[in-house]
Design goal:
This protein has 6 helices and 11 strands. The radius of gyration is 17 Å and the shape is globular. With 211 residues, the chain is α+β, with helices and mostly antiparallel strands.
Length: 211
Amino acid sequence: MERLPSPSPQAAVGALDLERPVGPATGRQLLALKRDPTQCLATLTASRLQVRTLPDRRNGAYCGYSDVVQILRSTVPYSGPVHLTCPMAATLYLWEREIVGPAAVKYLGSRLVRIDHMGTYSCRRRRGGSSNRPSEHATANAIDIGGFRLEDGRRITVLGDWSQGTTAERAFLRDIRDAACGLFQVVLSPDYNAAHRDHFHLDMGDWGVCR
């Protein structure tokens, strides 16, 4: 009996359209992109997100990346260059457009105009140790978000407003953290430990953590 080809991971959960609202299957669709680089790039290309592919890079034993893109234009600008794996870029785009932007209007009454980040690719291990597992940053599979700029001139920061902000500012930060957990594999905030007191760590690694 002839064996039929196995369906692609994306076909098993349905094609992901980055311009549609987040739904019950979105998390699984994003995970499927990790296993299908060609489909992932096609998904980005079909969206309004503008990216360019970067050449593969290797730095030593555990650092470097493949299938990475640079975000050229998104719904809002970032404070610096964003180089991420394709699935991370797709997930970040959904988070900023479907979650952060609407939450800024809902809680703070002003539009989001910029996201301040603290880095993507960085050749390092977790917790800065010399023998710990490599960080997801070491493969451009993570981003650290430090703050948000609003149209009315305000800047909301994780360091300054997670605990000391107004009720609305604290609600905004917790809402976008909680909602990120349905998209990214790992979401770490000041609730995790002191090392994350000033940023949200977001990644698409193999672990599932939301703190």
